[in-house]
Amino acid sequence: MDVRAAVAHQAGQPLTIETVQLEGPREGEVLVEIKATGICHTDAFTLSGDDPEGLFPAILGHEGAGVVVEVGAGVRSLKPGDHVIPLYVPECRQCNYCTSGKTNLCQAVRETQGAGLMPDGSSRFSLGGKPVLHYMGTSTFANYTVVPEISLAKIREDAPFEKVCYIGCGVTTGIGAVINTAKVEPGANVVVFGLGGIGLNVIQGARLAGADMIVGVDLNESKRALAEKFGMTHFVNPKEVEGDLVPYLVNLTKGGADYSFECIGNVKTMRQALECCHKGWGESIIIGVAGAGQEISTRPFQLVTGRVWRGTAFGGAKGRTQVPQIVDWYMDGKINIDDLITHVMPLDEINTAFDLMHEGKSIRSVVTF
Ligand code: NAD
Ligand code: AHE
Ligand code: ZN
């Protein structure tokens, strides 16, 4: 079938809107009509050429929501008409990662997914007879996409696509990092580096968890008001701090953060996030994604003296199980998504979403089809 897609032909170039061909679902696969997709910083990161796994031409996008149109042979858990959120971290419930009880990082299709292919090693998308690659197993920058059954969370039918698509990455990543990964406890002091589409969800997660002090760190003053609305108690602009940021934050939190979260993707702020943690127990969670060749460093003494450095993907969430619950939280008014979706646009204007992100003018842009 013909589908409308934003194609990434080359690193560093804008996406082009084209009609591409999409084959139907094979065994264990599902054809989904995408109704809405968010644009995450990770899409921009891959498009920039900094992603070691970035491959072109590809159809990017990993924060979508839509409706099942057709299922391939052997698909049992979904049927046409079901509302779904595609998952870049699947949940097969059978691999030793899924059954370990220690991680959400299902590996059932990770190898082919990282190569831009479906689990059988081929692509369903093509243009002029040449394959176009999938991205993160989801490729939501197209009005139709094919996704493995294990990479789809079934959600309730009254949830608005243009809002809950954000649960496909940013919301779950931020809130999940607090609840699943850090397991922040009531009364904890939290420092959040980067108040964008992820960091603001860390802040609302910290408020849900009952954190006491929630410090937000960002170079962009315009993020302050929204962060306060979501629960930030103290704002720090590093440009306005005299001297080093780390002792400033340690002093502000009266000894250091119980938990810090890096939501930028900058290896310098990753170090600051670790080192602003409380001696003896502070834990720093890396969420931001850093480019090829970048490495983190610190004095080992920081770890010897009890600070813990951890990371999280998709907020540690097992998607088929937890995403429907997070949709319920939104529908019950327990979490706020609406105020974070600052821009909505048609697919034709998707490059504007990248511009707004780079200019620091949006939190989340959503494309509706
Ligand atoms: P964003 O662009 O919306 O937000 C980044 C924020 O960081 C902005 O507010 C910006 O002003 C601020 N910032 C930039 N440099 C700074 C600095 N030196 N000091 C302080 N603040 C600074 O991006 P996002 O969509 O929120 O994504 C954030 C990061 O998280 C990206 O690296 C993205 O790739 C990553 N990410 C990771 C996961 C995961 O599962 N681990 C999931 C989603 C996104
Ligand atoms: N491909 C990159 C890393 C990109 C990355 O870290 N992706 C996160 C999700 S970011 C969502 O916005 C992730 O889930 N990682 C786990 C995984 O298995 O990919 C690289 O550096 O190679
Ligand atoms: Zn993302």
From TrEMBL:
One annotated Gene Ontology cellular component of this protein: cytosol
SUPFAM superfamilies: GroES-like, NAD(P)-binding Rossmann-fold domains
BP GO annotations: formaldehyde catabolic process
Keywords: Metal-binding, NAD, Oxidoreductase, Zinc
GO molecular function: alcohol dehydrogenase (NAD+) activity; S-(hydroxymethyl)glutathione dehydrogenase (NAD+) activity; S-(hydroxymethyl)glutathione dehydrogenase (NADP+) activity; S-nitrosoglutathione reductase (NADH) activity; zinc ion binding
Cofactor(s) this protein cannot do without: Zn(2+)
Domain (Enoyl reductase (ER)): residue spans on this chain: 12-367
Superkingdom of the source species: Bacteria
Reaction(s) catalysed by this chain's protein: a primary alcohol + NAD(+) = an aldehyde + NADH + H(+); a secondary alcohol + NAD(+) = a ketone + NADH + H(+); S-nitrosoglutathione + NADH + H(+) = S-(hydroxysulfenamide)glutathione + NAD(+); S-(hydroxymethyl)glutathione + NADP(+) = S-formylglutathione + NADPH + H(+)
Record has Transmembrane as a keyword: no
Enzyme class: oxidoreductase
EC identifiers of the protein: 1.1.1.284
UniProt similarity note: Belongs to the zinc-containing alcohol dehydrogenase family. Class-III subfamily.
Function (record text): Has high formaldehyde dehydrogenase activity in the presence of glutathione and catalyzes the oxidation of normal alcohols in a reaction that is not GSH-dependent. In addition, hemithiolacetals other than those formed from GSH, including omega-thiol fatty acids, also are substrates. Also acts as a S-nitroso-glutathione reductase by catalyzing the NADH-dependent reduction of S-nitrosoglutathione.
UniProt cross-references to PANTHER family, sorted A to Z: ALCOHOL DEHYDROGENASE, ALCOHOL DEHYDROGENASE CLASS-3
Designated name of the protein: S-(hydroxymethyl)glutathione dehydrogenase
Organism annotation: Oceanibacterium hippocampi
The encoding gene: flhA_1
